[in-house]
Each structure stands twice: as structure tokens, then as C-alpha cells.
Amino acid sequence: MITSMYRPRIEVPGGFYHVGARGNDRGAIFIDDEDRRSFLRLLTHTARRHGWLIHTYCLMTNHYHLLLQLGSGGLSSGMCQLNGGYALMFNVRHGRSNHVFGRRFWDEQIATDSHYVETCRYVVLNPVRAGLERAVESWPWSSYRAIIGEAFAPAFLARDELLARFGSTPAKARDAYIRHVAEGHVRRQPPGERDRRQPPGESPAT
């Protein structure tokens, strides 16, 4: 009997997922800022079509992270649209024909409030851990600056829903979120958790 090497996807309507994908052979999936803008435009379209709410995101050089909430379903179909559509645009723009992404996208279901808030922090601190920036607010390609009100929030970003986890008023929530992220600078990953947010055997690098 032939068995698949991949586990089946579990798609819970309304569920929260930490998802992402990495470049083929760890190669870059974003060459320049126009690539990143193209990805965010496609993410806007994909989120609208599949009913996603994006609570946190970060675009690196050779991978990306999303913390999303599903609508009525559509995790696999939405990721296929997002990654497939972006790969086509990337190859056309850069005159390539090779695979852009390596293995299929990876995902982790977020089941608890503590897991949610730790993942929010983990995602936006990627550029700091990778040595691309010294301060989380200096990286323009994550949701951090939009969450704290210092940059335009994309249509897909569930800013208010995220901040509601951190405080009863907008000001208190914003301050608590900033403190929560700042506390993460002193450790590589959430305490007591294996670094499951990366594909097995890979590090959260550039």
C-alpha cells in the first residue's frame, strides 16, 4: 500500500493557523520591495476571496509567516492560490521558470490564547532574530507598525481583533502589545515550546 508522506490538512472554520512557505532550496522569494508589494496585493485578494482575517504577518527574504483566521474553510485552496499566483508573477517578472517555493506550505493550528499571543510576537520578531534589523519597528514588511498605528493597515489586517486580546481600551491594548513584543527580544522562542513554527529541520533565518 502506498501512503502519503504528508499529513492531511485539518481545516476548522473560524480556526486560527500559523502558516508559511519557504523558497526552493532556501532561495529568495522576494528580490526587492516590488516583489513584497505584489505579494501583499495578492494576499489582499486571496483573503477577500476565502474569507481570511490576517492577524499578523511578516515577509522575510526566503520565507514568510501569516497568522490567519479562516472563514468557512479554504486553507489549502487559499494557500494554493496565494503561492501559485505569486510564483507565476515572480517568474514572469524575473524571467525565471524554476520552482519558487520548495516543499508545500506548512501550518500549525493555534488552539489557545497563550499560543496566539506568543505566535503574534514570534512572527514580527523574525527580522530581529535573523539580524536584518535591530528594532522590530524598523522592518517595514511586517504587521507590527500597522498594529501600533504607525503605518497604514492593509485591508486584510485584523488589527482591532488582535489588540482586543491585549487590553480593554485601544490605548491600553496598544501599550500592552508593544510591551509583549519587546519582552520577546530576550528569548528565541516561546518558553516551554518546541520551535514548531518552522518546517522540521529548518531555522527561522532570513
Query: Which CATH C-level class is it?
Result: Alpha Beta
In terms of per-residue confidence, which ranges show pLDDT below 50 for 5 or more consecutive residues?
1-5, 189-205
Please give the number of β-strands.
Answer: 4
Distance between the termini: 39 Å
Identify the overall geometry: globular
SSE pattern, N- to C-terminal: EHEEHEHHHHH
- Write down the overall mean pLDDT: 88
Nutshell version of this structure?
The chain has 206 residues and is of the alpha+beta class. It contains seven helices and four strands.
Q: Any overview of this molecule?
A:
With 206 residues, the protein is an alpha+beta fold. It has a single domain, classed as Transposase IS200-like (Alpha-Beta Plaits). Helix content is 37%, strand content 13%. It is built from seven helices and four strands; from the N terminus they run E-H-E-E-H-E-H-H-H-H-H. It has a four-stranded antiparallel sheet, with helices on both faces. Helix 1 runs antiparallel to helix 2 (75-94). The longest helix has 20 residues, at 75-94. It is globular, with a radius of gyration of 17 Å.
